[in-house]
């Protein structure tokens, strides 16, 4: 399983301030920490960056790749900034565009750019109508994205389909719809596409105590369904410890301790067998 490291994002105050001030030190610190933790790609999220995105994105990419030899996941809604980042990307490995979708203006242009620069691309299963209701609808959007991408010269194995995870604390029934979507995506092409999720979305709104149990257990479910590449923090030791144990529980092993009990409770929450509450582990 590959990992796209998530921590260099404009949504974090410290990183947003560093981007604005052109202070590379905090950004570089996170790039090195995530690289040492074993990530395969480093996501650089600058958001819309409407004023200076075309200068900001290449500055960050060039700075990181001077010291960290990892491909970049170029994360922005600013198409000009996206292309500037692709032009600047010189390190080993191929970059990833984050992202195309079924929304107007986010499909053909993104796939054309991916083909032009020999980039991989994340494709969100979303249209102008929003996020689909279930796995079947997500897979229908995925098929349309895949067909469009192939017609524009992007191979299936260069596409990361994202079913779009929703918080279990808000839309509990959607957790397994995304898992089933990952399972169904594998049948869309031969060779099959890759798949990704923003893992933190599943525990958004949960307490710090619950987050690693929800995230780690859900990651094990997603991998069992065929997930290839989560977007997450590779240095989250507690989450990955839960993930390793959850794989054993899903395979039928009895851990014989409190961790196994917590994972079993979390599986019931994720599968909507028990109703979610903030105190479900108590």
UniProtKB/TrEMBL annotation:
GO CC aspect terms: cytosol
Keyword Lipid biosynthesis on entry: no
InterPro entries hit by this protein: Dihydropteroate_synth-like_sf, Met_Synthase/Corrinoid, Pterin-binding_dom
Pfam families in the cross-refs: Pterin_bind (PF00809)
Regions annotated as coiled coil: none
PANTHER family xref list: BIFUNCTIONAL HOMOCYSTEINE S-METHYLTRANSFERASE_5,10-METHYLENETETRAHYDROFOLATE REDUCTASE, METHIONINE SYNTHASE
Name under which the protein is recorded: Pterin-binding domain-containing protein
Species for this entry: marine sediment metagenome
């Amino acid at each position: 399983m590959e990992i796209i490291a998530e921590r260099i994002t404009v949504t974090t105050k410290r990183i947003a301030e560093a981007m604005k001030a052109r202070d590379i030190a905090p950004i570089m610190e996170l790039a090195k920490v995530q690289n040492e933790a074993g990530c395969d790609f480093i996501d650089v999220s600058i958001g819309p960056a409407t004023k200076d995105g075309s200068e900001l994105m290449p500055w960050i990419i060039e700075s990181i790749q001077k010291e960290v030899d990892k491909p970049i996941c170029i994360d922005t809604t600013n198409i000009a900034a996206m292309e500037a980042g692709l032009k600047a990307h010189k390190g080993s490995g191929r970059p990833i565009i984050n992202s195309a979708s079924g929304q107007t203006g986010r499909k053909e242009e993104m796939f054309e750019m991916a083909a032009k620069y020999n980039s991989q691309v994340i494709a969100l299963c979303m249209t102008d109508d929003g996020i689909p209701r279930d796995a079947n609808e997500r897979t229908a959007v995925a098929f349309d994205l895949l067909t469009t991408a192939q017609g524009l010269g992007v191979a299936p194995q260069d596409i990361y389909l994202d079913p779009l995870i929703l918080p279990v604390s808000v839309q509990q029934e959607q957790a397994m719809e995304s898992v089933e979507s990952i399972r169904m995506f594998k049948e869309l092409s031969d060779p099959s596409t890759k798949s990704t999720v923003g893992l933190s979305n599943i525990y958004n709104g949960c307490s710090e105590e619950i987050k690693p149990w929800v995230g780690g257990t859900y990651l094990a479910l997603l991998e069992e369904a065929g997930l290839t590449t989560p977007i997450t923090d590779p240095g989250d030791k507690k989450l990955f410890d839960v993930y390793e144990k959850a794989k054993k529980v899903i395979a039928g092993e009895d851990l014989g301790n409190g961790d196994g009990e917590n994972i079993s409770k979390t599986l019931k929450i994720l599968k909507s067998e028990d109703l979610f509450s903030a105190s479900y582990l108590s």
